Amino acid sequence: MTEKKRAKAIPPLVTPTNIRKEMVSVYRDMRLKKIESQDGTRFVFVLNAILTAFRDCEVEEKIRELELLINNPTQAESVQPDPTLNKANAPALPCHVKDAT
């Protein structure tokens, strides 16, 4: 009787740190021959794309905040950062992208 392998839970990819940890996990799985290197390479490629999109959105938000400060210097205190970029409650998909699922 063969045992089914239990699928490893994928952590939420909501911060650059979580994405980096998942990349490291994929690397370790490749080194331990738990996954084929070709599959691992594909996973890391996708994770890198997610990381790039996440960072692009952070930069976009910072630019928006700076533009508001430059264009409205008298309202500098009223400019609030986007709460969705707070690391504690960051969205799984950055830049207000709606989840397709």
Order of helices and strands: HH
Largest sheet: none
Tally of individual domains: 1
Question: How large a portion of the residues is in β-strands, by DSSP E?
Answer: under 5%
Number of strands: 0
What spatial form do the alpha-carbon principal axes imply? elongated
N/C terminus separation? 36 Å
Q: Which segments are poorly predicted (pLDDT under 50) over 5 or more consecutive residues? A: 96-101
Spatial extent as radius of gyration: 19 Å
Helix content: 40-55%
Count of alpha and pi helical runs: 2
Question: What's the arrangement of secondary structure elements?
Answer:
Elements: H1 16-31, H2 37-71
Helix pairs in contact: 1-2
What can you tell me about this protein's structure?
There is one protein chain. 50% of the residues lie in helices and 0% in strands. It has 101 residues and is mainly alpha-helical. The protein has one domain.
